[in-house]
Amino acid sequence: AKEAFSKAVGLGMRMPMTWRRVQTLNAPGGRPVLVIAPELLEWYVQRFGAAHVSITDESDMAAAYVVVERKP
């Protein structure tokens, strides 16, 4: 999900994006959510709205999709 997020915001793995600045956690109901560290969050909120993540997996494969809403 970290890589999908980094590509959705157009950075790839360039600053201010690093592997440690985004976490994928579960909301109380089990829905995956992205948690953005303060060092990246300031950059993010200037450019984007909500981020949505979907994760699926099988025994030998996993995939994540991230949709990021642009600010109007």
From TrEMBL:
It comes from Escherichia coli. The lineage of its organism: Bacteria, Pseudomonadati, Pseudomonadota, Gammaproteobacteria, Enterobacterales. It comes from the Bacteria. InterPro entries: 4-PPantetheinyl_Trfase_dom_sf (IPR037143). GO terms for molecular function: holo-[acyl-carrier-protein] synthase activity; magnesium ion binding. This is Holo-ACP synthase.
